[in-house]
What we know:
Blueprint: H1 2-31, E1 33-44, E2 49-52, E3 67-72, E4 75-87, E5 90-95, E6 109-120, H2 121-127
Antiparallel strand pairs: 1-2, 1-6, 2-5, 3-4, 3-6, 4-5
Amino acid sequence: MKKLTNSNKIIVFSIFLILLLFVFFIIFIYFYKLNKFEYIQLENVDEHTFRTINKAKNRNLFKINQEIVFIIENEKINLTTRKIYVQNDWIYIVFHSFKNKLNILPKDNVLAKIVIDKISLLNKLFQL
């Protein structure tokens, strides 16, 4: 008789543990956010200013204090925007000082990655 009750406690405890882990897993999936990126080409105008290559097509993507990731020689550099303005159908982006993190010349093209949206993992799973 003792063996039956002893194993029953172990089974109940293991079921409770599995349910608890399942609840934590569901909470993690619900609150974990994925970034949605778009790649853009930027041209260096001067020390802190870049402009988009494809004129004013992506005007609504850019915001002030938004983080943009530059990809230079397989190295990723995060910069935040300070000012955005449109002049002659070109979008100009001025960044906070980055203290010579970028070793590029004027008129060089740079590939950059911009975060457009954050989506929960649960929504992403149900989209598929």
